[in-house]
Amino acid sequence: MSKTRAKSSDTRQRIVETAERLFYAEGVRAVGIDRIIAEAEVAKMSLYNHFPSKDDLILAVLRYREEKFDALFGKWMGRYAQAGSDRLEAFFAALKDWFESPGFRGCMFINSFAELADAKHPGSQFSVTHKERFHEMLRGIVAETAGTKAAETTAPAIALLVEGAIVAAVMEQSSKPADVAKDAALALIAKTRRK
């Protein structure tokens, strides 16, 4: 890779990482382009060379956040799985770790969807597909732990429990909603198995 191309790639990444940090902490609408430029220490033209509009930047940030979050969540789950937890237990333990992480402000995808207030915005559409992928991953975990039948009947409800726990954790500033969601999910699965 040429030095110019590498520098351009570094600049783009610095912009995305800065915007992700600011958007997550303060919101996609509250943070302006000038603030991102200042904190990323780039020229305005550099930002616009990479992202023609703030909407393009929002979408790039959400894609970056998904990669970053998925890797981190997978790492947390892996740690619990190595310690002997089944994948569903590992999922809820990782959820609790996320709720206890410094600067936790809930789900960036839920937050962004609400702030953008336009279901047709590319960032809103990406947020919806992110949630679909997240729920599909959760369905797979439930199937692995409790079987395909249990996953078909309980995974949608468990996904709602998880989403509610995320919102409650932010509002209550507590990780306890992860435990409540886990207990409810396990009870739901047990009830399904008894049928």
Morphology call: elongated
| End-to-end Cα distance | 60 Å
Care to count the β-strands? Answer: 0
Within the CATH hierarchy, at the fold level, what is the topology of the largest domain?
Tetracycline Repressor, domain 2
Q: Tell me the series of helices and strands, N- to C-terminal.
A: HHHHHHHHH
* Residues in helix, %: over 70%
Tally of distinct domains: 2
Superfamily (CATH H level) name of the largest domain? Tetracycline Repressor, domain 2
Index terms:
2 domains; Tetracycline Repressor, domain 2; 195 residues; single chain; mainly alpha; Arc Repressor Mutant, subunit A
Can you characterise this structure?
The chain is an all-alpha fold and 195 residues long. It has helices at 3-26, 33-40, 44-50, 54-82, 87-100, 108-116, 122-146, 148-172, 176-194. Helix 1 crosses helix 2, helix 4 runs parallel beside helix 7 and helix 5 (87-100) packs antiparallel against helix 9 (176-194). The model has no long low-confidence stretch (mean pLDDT 94).
